[in-house]
């Protein structure tokens, strides 16, 4: 009897410093799973790529929503947002499409060596371990995601290395009431604008 092929599967997975890419693939025709590429390993996970990213954000003490809001605050990007899953561990990943789409893959910024456009209109990505993948998106789109993730990494680095600067408001005792009212009004306006964006 012919031996059956065996595939390595994990039930769950947290992104780590060895993670290169998380790619969507279908098992049994209609079940979306993830093919995970690590520096010295490759296997499958019974989770969708974006679900792995969300779980990894939680694992490192935040949430996917919190990370995307952080990206917006730092570099103003709101669509196909790169995120810092863990800035301290240098885990900066970016999606190849909108994170809500089934075909979305997630790529580690620090592991990308170079990328080229193929004659078959795919983008071939080479990683620092010489492993290659081909993605069904334009070279310009991939390079834009690389650039924005680089911006995010630089912004985190600047925040972490910036000296502590404070500028105090000198408020007279008889003007304290008016000062606090102005601050409260400004805070209320900010909260209303924030609610309007949701």
UniProtKB/TrEMBL annotation:
Tree of life domain: Bacteria
GO biological process assignments: establishment of competence for transformation
A matching Pfam family: ComK
Protein name: Competence protein
